Amino acid sequence: GEIRSSENSYFCQAARQLACVPSSQLCVKLASGGDPTYAFNIRFTGEEVHGTSGSFRHFLWQVCKELQSSSLSLLLLCPSSAVNKNKGKYILTPSPITYAEEQLFHFFGQLLGIAIRADVPLPLDLLPSFWKTLVGEPLDPDVDLQEADILTYNYVKKFENINDETELEALCAEIASQHLATESPDCPNKPCCKFTYLTMTGEEVELCPRGRHIPVGWENKDVYATAIRSLRMRELQTPECMTAVRAGLGSIIPLQLLTTLTPLEMELRTCGLPYINLEFLKAHTMYQVGLMETDQHIEFFWSALEVFTQEELCKFIKFACNQERIPFTCPCKDGGPDTAHVPPYPMKIAPPDGAAGM
User: Fold this and answer.
1) Which long-range contacts (CB under 8 A, 24 or more apart) does 93-100 make?
2) Residue 107: what pLDDT?
3) Do the Cβ atoms of 271 and 134 come closer than 8 Å?
4) What are the two backbone dihedrals, phi and then psi, of residue 148, each rounded to the nearest 5 degrees?
5) Ranges for the HECT domain (predicted)?
6) Where along the chain do the CATH 3.90.1750.10 domains lie?
7) CA atoms of 68 and 200, how far apart (whole Å)
């Protein structure tokens, strides 16, 4: 039902239309300055759009909005976001997947590769654990758990740091007050925890066979804490989902290349820089049809941008070239020739058409 309700999303429409296209046809040459060769053309029904660049960039931007919304269920807001840690960061939804969902994850991987080839950064906000798993780097059971789900991290730490049975009893009483514990079968009035825990999607699962019938005591508290940590690590690695994503990515770029990149480098290569360097933008702007940087309205223009927040600057970049992020690999940043710019560089400012007498 969820898949059916999202059929009209840009993401699902594209996945259906490209399902029968050999992946080799999507492997266009790498961008090397100026507008690149795109893997496919986007046409918006009923809209008159000139050129292919703006439509393609808008499509990728719209798809990322859909992925990071309730319209699609492939990505999940990380639990830490609920307590303002890593707010707005996503992970792959950790749950068993259907064949249809596997195909969508495969297409998601293809889009990552297509964006890399076209050098069009995707405005995706994914936790570092996603990029670590993608490039094959093991997760840190402390750091990555804390980043993704700080409440579970603190919960596990409480059990690991208990010094005696009195503290354990007090902790179980605290958990009982939050409706997470039940009474001990041996002492009906004594609260205890069982070997169950909630998944990231809110489903209660047993941490071991017959876990609902096994109380947590002094002898097995560490086993309980380890089991919860292991549950979260499996959810962050999402083997089924990640296998499909890697398969899709590998159909567009060689997976061997991932072994040469760190998780951060892979994120920057795919999603670009999440901030706008206004000075760099100003230094890479062209003035056309008689305009000069010293013109008063041009000075007003830059003065206005200087008071913009980063969020507002991203919206300005989206208005200017239909993408929010700055490519990480812009050749001109490394001293290359001016012809090796990639959008939004160089930004061009010109008078409006028919500006005579204005």
Assistant:
1) 93/201, 93/238, 93/241, 94/199, 94/200, 94/201, 94/234, 94/235, 94/236, 94/238, 94/241, 95/199, 95/201, 96/240, 97/240, 97/241, 97/244, 98/3, 100/3
2) 95
3) no
4) -85, -40
5) 42-328
6) 6-143+237-271
7) 16
**Among candidates 270, 223, 234, which has minimal Cα distance to 123?**
270
pLDDT per position as a tens digit, 172-198: 877 777 655 444 444 444 556 888 889
Return the closest-CA partner of residue 285 out of 331, 335, 348, 341: 348
**Residue in 83, 216, 227 with CA at minimum distance from that of residue 162:** 216
User: Hey, what CATH topology would domain 6-143+237-271 get?
Assistant: Hect, E3 ligase catalytic domain fold (3.90.1750)
User: What b/e sequence results for 75-108 when a residue is b if at least 16 CB atoms lie within 10 Å of its CB, and e otherwise?
Assistant: bbbbbbbeeebbeebbbbbbbebeeebbbbbbbb
- pLDDT digit of tens for each residue in the chain (358 aa)? 444 557 788 999 999 999 889 988 888 887 766 667 788 888 887 777 666 778 888 899 999 999 999 888 899 999 999 888 998 899 999 988 899 899 999 999 999 999 888 888 899 999 999 999 999 999 999 999 999 999 999 999 988 888 888 888 888 877 777 655 444 444 444 556 888 889 999 888 888 898 888 888 888 888 999 999 999 999 999 999 999 999 999 999 999 988 889 999 999 989 988 788 888 888 888 888 888 888 899 999 999 999 999 889 888 888 888 888 877 766 666 555 455 666 667 788 888 876 554 4
8 A C-beta contact, residue 126 and residue 90: yes
What pLDDT does residue 120 have? 86
Pairing of strands 204-206, 196-198: antiparallel
Percentage of the chain modeled with pLDDT above 90: 37
pTM above 0.85, yes or no: no
User: Residue 321 has which token pair?
Assistant: 């070239």
- The residues of the chain that CATH labels 3.30.2410.10 are 278-348
DSSP string for residues in 251-300: TTS-GGGGGGS-HHHHHHHHH-BSS--HHHHHHTEEE-TT--TTSHHHHH
Backbone angles phi, psi at 223, to 5 degrees: -65, -40
